[in-house]
């Protein structure tokens, strides 16, 4: 299989835990419900850090002036994500992480010269992640 196909399969498969944790949050009780809530936030931070790291990796071979700012943004985004979960409030962390995903995509689109198929996939995946975060926040607000 090509690396493009593997990237697409892994990318879209990566959405499954987001929605699985939302399902667990809405349908389970007690400890499994709490595990779903914490799992969502921790998984979200892990994926967010992975994407920020990918941004870091993209500029390692670039000698452009923007590479330094991209390295700083990449690190800043990870610190932002960690600070989001340090709020110890799952709903607040989810909102901050969702905003982080949107900022990351915006920044990536501004500076990146990646292939069109990858850019489109990243847009779709970010949309899926944002929808999952909206569902997660909605479950908190409604007390599901």
UniProtKB/TrEMBL annotation:
InterPro entries: DUF3429. It comes from the Bacteria. Coiled coil: none annotated. The chain crosses the membrane at residues 6-28, 40-57, 77-104, 125-143. The keyword Chloroplast does not apply. The keyword Hydrolase does not apply. Keywords: Membrane, Transmembrane, Transmembrane helix. Pfam families: DUF3429 (PF11911). This is DUF3429 domain-containing protein. It comes from Candidatus Paraluminiphilus aquimaris. The lineage of its organism: Bacteria, Pseudomonadati, Pseudomonadota, Gammaproteobacteria, Cellvibrionales.
């Amino acid at each position: 299989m090509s690396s493009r196909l593997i990237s697409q399969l892994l990318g879209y498969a990566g959405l499954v835990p987001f929605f699985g944790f939302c399902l667990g949050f809405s349908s389970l009780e007690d400890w499994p419900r709490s595990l779903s809530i914490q799992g969502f936030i921790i998984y979200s931070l892990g994926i967010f850090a992975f994407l920020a790291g990918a941004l870091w990796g993209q500029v390692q071979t670039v000698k452009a002036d923007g590479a330094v700012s991209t390295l700083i943004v990449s690190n800043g985004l990870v610190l932002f994500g960690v600070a989001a979960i340090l709020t110890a409030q799952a709903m607040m962390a989810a909102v901050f992480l969702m905003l982080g995903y949107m900022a990351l995509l915006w920044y990536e689109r501004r500076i990146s010269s990646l292939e069109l198929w990858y850019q489109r996939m990243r847009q779709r995946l970010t949309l899926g992640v944002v929808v999952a975060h909206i569902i997660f926040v909605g479950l908190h607000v409604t007390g599901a």
